[in-house]
Design brief:
Elements lengths: L1 H10 L19 H8 L4 E5 L2 E9 L2 H11 L5 H13 L8 E4 L4 H7 L3 H13 L7 E4 L9 H6 L3 E4 L6 E9 L3 H12 L4 E9 L2
Parallel strand pairs: 2-7, 3-6, 6-7
Antiparallel strand pairs: 1-2, 4-5
Helix pairs in contact: 3-4, 4-6
Length: 206
């Protein structure tokens, strides 16, 4: 049976995680989507409590398809591709300190079976050699998705410290919308002793 599966895998090419077209066995996305992802705009901005925030793509097109592939379709290898994209494009000064994943609500993590931001953070730590510190937890199960901007900013998630906080922290998330969650994480880190907090998200909604 294993031999039959191996033959089938060789005859049927893998599908691109973004567009669904066939691609090479060595790639998660096809060459066309890879070119489109390389051409997207990057964005640096300031968020409350964060010294420097950078986003490797605007939320749309291939970037949006990859976020959906990871979070909804549960294609975990996409996290490695996202980490590769961040490592390739991020300013050198941004990739420093200890990597801290932005926590997802425990109920949602249990339902998915994994934490998207945690997967990206782990892959980025493996690529860069930066230490990984999973020192934050998110209380409550309320979702930010679907809330208006004023609601997100007025009712940010409750983030608590669970573990040793690094002096220099690099927050990692998959998508940033208003920055309310990143700022809540930054407050928790600074209250826990962090002197510098930077943030990187794969995509930024505008």
């Amino acid at each position: 049976m294993k031999a039959l599966h191996a033959v089938a895998a060789g005859l049927v090419p893998p599908l691109c995680a973004a567009c669904g077209r066939s691609c090479s066995h060595e790639s998660i996305i096809c060459s066309r989507c890879r070119r489109r992802l390389a051409d997207v705009a990057t964005l640096a901005t300031r968020l409350p409590g964060i010294d420097f925030a950078w986003f490797s793509a605007l939320y749309g097109g291939v970037a949006r398809d990859l976020v959906i592939a990871l979070k909804v379709r549960r294609l975990l290898p996409v996290a490695e591709l996202i980490a590769e994209h961040i490592d390739w494009l991020a300013p050198g000064s941004a990739l420093s300190g200890s990597i801290v994943p932005v926590p997802t609500a425990r109920l949602r993590t249990a339902k998915r079976g994994f934490d998207p931001a945690g997967e990206i953070a782990f892959a980025l730590s493996e690529r860069t050699g930066l230490p990984l510190r999973e020192c934050l937890v998110r209380e409550g199960g309320g979702r930010q998705v679907g809330k208006r901007r004023a609601q997100r900013l007025g009712d940010p998630p409750r983030i608590l410290v669970r573990g040793e906080v690094p002096r220099s922290a690099l927050l990692i998330d998959d998508v940033c919308t208003t920055g309310a969650t990143l700022s809540a994480c930054a407050r928790a880190l600074r209250n826990g002793g962090a002197a510098r907090v930077e943030a990187i998200a794969f995509a930024r909604r505008l």
